[in-house]
Specification:
The protein is α/β, with parallel strands linked by helices. Helix content is 43%, strand content 24%. The protein folds into three domains: 122 residues, ATPase, nucleotide binding domain (Nucleotidyltransferase, domain 5, 2-Layer Sandwich); 90 residues, Nucleotidyltransferase, domain 5 (2-Layer Sandwich), CATH 3.30.420; 39 residues, no CATH class. Strand 7 and strand 8 form a beta hairpin. 37% of the residues are buried.
Length: 270
């Protein structure tokens, strides 16, 4: 089984080639340029360096989400395009689970934290001390909620992901179980882990994990900013403002500020 893996769910963009249990090559970058600029050139370079004949690839593994909406779409479009061109299936891999797979056989619970902004994280809880088990499926929750759950479980835990650094202070103040943070080379997304997890999924479930490229769909877990703006506009009767390119949240904030100022002056604002 030869798997070409794609990772584009966050700041890391990368690809990897796995043949059975051999990692043939991995290429990843986490620096400034957008995935649209880096992903295809990296894949082309990996192909050249490994002398890969794309016709020998059996499946394309790709993170299906959660993560950056733009990054996920770039990864999905690349995977679907290759899958359709080569007439091979896609193996959708849960992003949070793939991050946790970096620490396979760790001696504690594994809790990836992807920063989802506004105090929330994309997260899950995994136990790889005897195989690889999901304790809590990937989800989008306030960071305090996952900390409370870890306190309830009462087991030592290792944190990883870009959200671990963002919420380190909250973790240190609120978590009461032994914990530590993964080092830099294991902390973030790795295309090699996407490939390895895809291979393990195939071994466990066979063809059930294979999805026709045209049928592959992303799993966002949370609506995009544009969709949130649309919902806010509908609820506040401001669809015309949204259509005109006005940020609804900024307009609502301005109205609230005006109301507060008027109230302080003893005036009534309609």
């Amino acid at each position: 089984m030869k798997i070409l893996a794609i990772e584009a769910s966050a700041l890391v963009a990368g690809c990897a080639l796995l043949e059975d249990d051999v990692l043939v090559g991995e290429y990843s970058v986490q620096h400034q340029k957008t995935h649209s600029q880096t992903l295809l050139p990296m894949m082309d370079e990996l192909k050249k360096l490994t002398q890969l004949d794309l016709k020998t690839v059996d499946a394309i593994a790709v993170t299906k989400g959660p993560g950056s909406f733009t990054g996920l779409r770039i990864g999905a479009a690349t995977a679907k395009g290759l899958g359709l061109a080569l007439d091979i299936p896609v193996i959708p891999v849960p992003t949070v689970e793939a991050i946790a797979y970096n620490l396979f056989a760790a001696d504690a619970l594994i809790c990836p934290l992807m920063d989802a902004r506004r105090g929330q994280v994309y997260t899950g809880i995994y136990d790889s001390r005897n195989g690889f088990k999901t304790v809590k499926d990937q989800c989008a929750v306030p960071v305090t909620e996952i900390i409370d759950e870890l306190n309830t479980l009462g087991s030592a835990v290792i944190f990883m992901g870009d959200g671990a650094k963002v919420h380190e202070k909250t973790i240190e103040e609120s978590l009461h179980v032994p914990h530590r943070f993964a080092p830099a080379h294991l902390c973030v997304q790795r295309p090699a882990s996407v490939a390895a997890l895809a291979m393990q999924m195939y071994r466990e479930k066979g063809d059930a994990v294979l999805v026709p490229a045209d049928d592959f769909r992303l799993e966002y877990l949370r609506v995009s900013q544009a969709e949130r703006q649309r919902q806010q506009a509908q609820e506040s009767g401001m669809m015309d403002s949204l259509a005109a390119g006005t940020l609804v949240k900024d307009t609502l904030a301005a109205k609230d500020t005006a109301k507060d100022t008027a109230a302080a002056d003893g005036k009534k604002l309609v």
